[in-house]
Structure formats: structure tokens, C-alpha cells
Design brief:
alpha/beta; 6 helices; five-stranded antiparallel β-sheet; single chain; Rossmann fold
Length: 280
């Protein structure tokens, strides 16, 4: 059995503060340790369930958050910035199942801890084929184009609710429950990691619970940005339309182009957004 594990940070046990999400922020280094521990809980369960190979991808920000010196030595780790497939780097049709650890709810979700979609300030909303889409849907749809189902989503309660909305009765494990975007009732990490281990073990023992989230081609990605400047800059890319002053849209029959373009747009948006930060 070959298992892909994508690990984000906002849904990691014990974390609630934006400072904990960025290098140099108060609590970030400890946050990286907690992120690695949550990942390791899933990796341990995977190998205990008989996995032959486990690939872990660092899916948060710069991709340099998981501690390479603390990750379970039996897995392999994809890390670093500007990975072409970003949160799904390394995933291919040879994998049996994908596990999403540390995931969060899409932008604007009530009680979603650190809720956002792809970018925290620059993106207001994302639609895939007309359906509002968070990172769970975006990544599950990509996995489905490769024939890889999702077996588990771990994160805050709102992320777990979203996962079931997107995927049906997929395995989930909630490690915290948000009261607002930056505050939550958290399960202490040691216990949360046991819950992740147990949920992973259950999911891998029950292939019938794995879920494919197929989205029919052609694929249309629409992003509503926080500013006209970002949208105008992203619309310079050939094939990208600008149906509204703050919205870019792109259609393709190849979903890898959707994921790749999101990464390119994010790079552009980060630069433009920083330049005009005070104006949003």
C-alpha cells in the first residue's frame, strides 16, 4: 500500500494564532514541531496498517515547516517553496489513498479556525466549475483526476464538516473547535495525535470509506481577489479572463493546469499585495 500525506498547518493541533503560521512569528518554531507530530501520528498509523511507502508533502506556505529532523524516518518528505503542484506535490496515480492532515475550512466559514482559501489576505473566494471551493475540494478534485481517493481529513471541526460536505462520509478527526477565526477550544496535542493515529488506522482498514471527488471537465477556476491590482496582474497570463474587475477566470481540460495556475497566481498576488498592502 502506497500512501500520500499532505500536511497543512492551520488545522494542526494546538495552533490558533496567525503568528504561529509564519517564520519569525511568536510560537512558529513550536508550531512546526506540533505540525510534524501530527504528521507523524498519521505516518505511524500508516506503517502499522501495512503501508509499503508513505510520502509526506509540506503543504503550508513556504513548504519549509515540517521538521526534517523529527519526521518519521520511514517516510519520505517533499519540502520547499514553489513546488509545481503545491499541496499535492508528489502525488501520482500509483498511490492508493491520500490523507489530509492539518487542513482548515475555506474562506468565510463561521467558526473556521484561521479560515481562508489558498491565501489569507489576497483571496476573497474561489469557485471551481461554479461551486465555492476551499482547499479540501481543490485538492480532492486533483487527486480524483489521478484516480486517488481521500481516506482522511484531520483539522478543526469546521474543516471536518467541510470535508464531509465535499466528500460524503469520509473519515475525519477534529483536533479543535473554533469559536472565531483566531480562537478555539483545543484538544491537547498529545491526545489529539492519538486521535489522528486512531482515525488513520480506522480509515486505512476500511477502503470502503475512501472517497473520490470527481469534477467533470472542462474545469473552470474563478478567483475573487481582494484588489483590482492583483486581478489585473494575474489576467496578463495568456488564457486568463477578467470577467469582473477583481475576478480572474481560467478554463482548461487539464486539472494539473488548475493547480499549477493557482500557484502562479499566488506568487503574483503575494508580490502585488505586499506592494499595496495598506490599500488591500
Amino acid at each position: 500500500m502506497k500512501i500520500f500525506v499532505s500536511v497543512d498547518m492551520e488545522g494542526v493541533s494546538g495552533l490558533t494564532d496567525p503568528e504561529e503560521m509564519r517564520a519569525g512569528g511568536r510560537g512558529y518554531e513550536r508550531g512546526c514541531e506540533l505540525m510534524t507530530a501530527d504528521a507523524n501520528a498519521a505516518v505511524r498509523a500508516a506503517f502499522d496498517a501495512g503501508a509499503d511507502e508513505v510520502l509526506v508533502t509540506d503543504s503550508h506556505g513556504s513548504g519549509k515547516n515540517l521538521r526534517a529532523d523529527l519526521i518519521d524516518e520511514r517516510c519520505t518528505l517533499f519540502r520547499g517553496p514553489y513546488k509545481p503542484m503545491r499541496m499535492a506535490e508528489g502525488l501520482d496515480p500509483s498511490f492508493d489513498v491520500a490523507l489530509y492532515i492539518g487542513y482548515h475550512a475555506r474562506a468565510g466559514t463561521a467558526h473556521g479556525v484561521l479560515n481562508h482559501t489558498w491565501m489569507g489576505n489576497e483571496i476573497r473566494d474561489v469557485h471551481l466549475n461554479g461551486e465555492v471551493a476551499g482547499e479540501i475540494l481543490l485538492m480532492a478534485a486533483y487527486a480524483a483526476t489521478l484516480g486517488v481517493p481521500v481516506g482522511l481529513v484531520a483539522g478543526d471541526q469546521a474543516a471536518c464538516d467541510e470535508a464531509r460536505e465535499v466528500l460524503g462520509e469520509v473519515g475525519t478527526v477534529a483536533v479543535k473547535r473554533g469559536s472565531d477565526r483566531y480562537a478555539a477550544e483545543v484538544i491537547p496535542p498529545a491526545r489529539a495525535q492519538r486521535l489522528i493515529y486512531d482515525a488513520t488506522a480506522r480509515a486505512l482498514a476500511d477502503r470502503g470509506s475512501w472517497r473520490l471527488r470527481e469534477v467533470g471537465a472542462p474545469y473552470t477556476l474563478a478567483v475573487e481577489w481582494s484588489s483590482t491590482a492583483i486581478a489585473q496582474s494575474c489576467a496578463v497570463i495568456p488564457g486568463v479572463k477578467l470577467p469582473e474587475p477583481r475576478t480572474t477566470e481560467f478554463t482548461t481540460s487539464d486539472y494539473t493546469e488548475i493547480v499549477g495556475l493557482l500557484g502562479v497566481w499566488a506568487t503574483i498576488a503575494g508580490d502585488v499585495g505586499c506592494t499595496g498592502r495598506h490599500y488591500g
